[in-house]
Amino acid sequence: MLEMIRTELAAAIGTALAAMGVEAPQIVVDVPPRRPLGDLAWAGALPLAKTLRRAPRAIAEEVARRLDEARATLPAEHPLAMLEPGCAVEGPGFLNFRLRRGAALARLLREMRESHPRRDERGGPGGVAEAGGSGGGPKCPPKVIVEHTNINPNKAAHIGHLRNAVLGDTLVRCLRYLGHPVEVQDYIDDTGVQVADVVVGFLFLPEERLLAAVGAAWPGLAPAPSRSGVLAAFAARAAAGTLVSDTLGEADLDDLCWDLYPRVTRWYEEDESAAARRAEVLHAVEAGFPSELSLEQAIEDLASSDHGPRTTDHASIARLAAAVAEANVRCHLVTMGRLGIAYDVLPHESDILHRGFWQRAFELLQATGAIRLEEDGKNAGCWVMSLADSPEFAGMADADKILLRSSGTVTYTGKDIAYQLWKLGLLRDAGGALHDFGYRAFVRFARDGAAGPVRYGQGARVLYRTASDPAERPTGVAFGAGGRVYNVIDVRQSYPQKVVKEAIRVLGHPEAAENSIHFAYEMVALTPKAVRRLEETHGLDFGLTAEDMAKPFLEMSGRRGIGVAADALLVTLIREAERAIADRQGEGPALAPELVAARARAIAVGALRYQMARQGRNRVLAFDFDEALAFEGDTGPYLQYSAVRAAKVFEKLAAQGLAGSTETDAGAAAAAAVSDDLWELAFACARTREVVGKALASLEFSLLAGHTRDLAQLFHKLYHEHSVLHAEDEAVRALRRGVFRLFGETIREILEELLGIPVPQEM
RNA sequence: GCGCCGAUGGCUCAAUGGAUAGAGCACCUGACUUCGGAUCAGGCGGUUGGGGGUUCGAGUCCCUCUCGGCGCGCCA
Description:
- This protein is α/β, with parallel strands linked by helices.
- 50% of the residues lie in helices and 10% in strands.
- The strands form five sheets. A four-stranded antiparallel beta sheet has the order 1-2-4-3. Strands 6-5-14-15 form a four-stranded parallel beta sheet, sandwiched between helices.
- A hairpin with a 6-residue loop joins strand 11 (438-447) and strand 12.
- Helix 1 crosses helix 3 (56-72) and helix 27 (701-721) runs antiparallel to helix 28.
- The longest helix is centred in the C-terminal third of the chain and has 25 residues, at 730-754.
- It is globular and about 90 Å long.
- The chain binds one RNA strand through helix 2, helix 15, helix 16, helix 20 and helix 23.
């Protein structure tokens, strides 16, 4: 409603200005900072003062006069009839308008009713993109691809990954809210050194070190723990599906790897011969394995050759690496699923390699002359892309980026260019056909409600993964070829992301380059206090210097094992939430444990997601336990509590037969004089779409978070001052109830659909 | 060296170039025989890092300086 009025008002101001002989470039109707000033405002008279050589107030007054005349003839159903007649010129020349509160509130309530039942799961059925998003009706906007999470599948997710996934997921939710079809991709780097390092750990790390890492996660390996025993256990667990656990707090493979990985990197530092193992495994992983090679077979091969550092079968190593990566991916899915974060497709780097994406991209780059083979100099023998002509890269000492090494292998950036081309639908074979992956179902999943946890294993929706054989393609499945692509990656990757964008541009796709958006955000680090707490609770010593500990924050490091694992944080949050619930429970019968657990989970997710959303994206998030565990003040639970309270009011009303209906409230509102405080909340609710639009335009979800907190604050205040149940009379009750109804629906929609924060029944 | 980002009350953070810079935490004083106190009311606390400039208007844009962080690989 609000958007339509603003559009019409801007048009009317434009008409008035035109009649005054003024061609205003762009008319912006905004909202005054404080409601007493009005609901809508036009500040355009101020900049016009100079060109017109008239006082800004005089300009505003003339516009006001002409507007009044024009509006006098409008039909009653015109959007501008929703404004109070007349307008005020205030301050240096602001033109302020007021809405007819009662009528506007009635309209908001009726629109709210029309939009129900809620559109659930906008953005394609079951994760299957529909015909590249180009089908559908004429007004169907092009498909947007959002890539986020992208965790190396070699260890558990940490809080840095949480920031990525929460920002990415919030982006997805906001896009869908505004009607964009969205495809969510989680890129899996299953062939990189990080996976190789963990595999080195299983195969070549000195046995006692391996056993030390495995012991914590997999107790009961005895009686005679050994490397081959570990491998056998891995195979057994893979077969039984117990490398991954749905139970929060149970040690998964990713937790085992979290411990194993730093031991491997330490071994590299201590033992020079380890480097050869690393290279060998990496090479094996990149080469892949025949599809008929089973994990059992591979592990049997590997275990039988377990006599110290000896070269084993490369295909078997690759097969093990694939299993390690896959299990880690499944762990990550479960972790993110707990926060209500789901995906449509998992593009795998191994498939990019084996499907020849780089080969095709290389041909395209050569054909357009975007890259050249360096004959001599320090980059001799490499294919490089010159960045010298691009203003983005002006002033760089070395403006050439190597895409193909002299060894003939492709760099990370090279692969990324190929992948980005595919995402944009620009990776095409000579004949013009899309150069595409194959696909196969990875796992089924379901979720309850917009913010409920994502449960894997069964359900109506299917998460797909890529395959290297393009013939492998379930019917109706198509991914990639987006009209716009957001890559959610932390700011440290800005340089390669710019190179990718530049490559798209020089390949002759300037619009596509503009639609390749790097959603950059600052890293998550740890406060020294948080690091100390980690050392204490885990009995570790990260070996940090006094100088390190004096810094404002410390970078996490998977290699050194410094970090807060996502699941561990969630466990702590849930425990704290349970304690808070118990504290507030007072006397009376104890709650059922499942009930407490469900509420605590919702509160934990709310606290976590809100903390990630409320902070501006280009500010380092220095993680602190006390801050993360706060449930009062500017926190997720504060917002959840407002939604729970609003729902409670309606429960009580219903119990006394006073619930009314949207229609009775709308009718009452239309006839009522709406007080300032009630109006302030109603008007704020009406601004939600505008705020989502701004958040999306600036990629700043702090705007949405702030808006939500404003709503909750206004509500809590009203809640204290104006009882609905004990209202003086029915008219007053209906009006308050109408505003609370609007708030209740709005806050629930924002929390569950946009911020992914579940609203519990009770807290 | 070049580039990007940050600096806002004691602390953590907000604020499409607009009107009186907002929250929370901490501290102090208050509020339930009425819809749940994870709440609310009030108080304390600011020359928005320094200096120039543009503008009718600057926390926001430009220049410069200081401090802090991060990038600038034939790593991924």
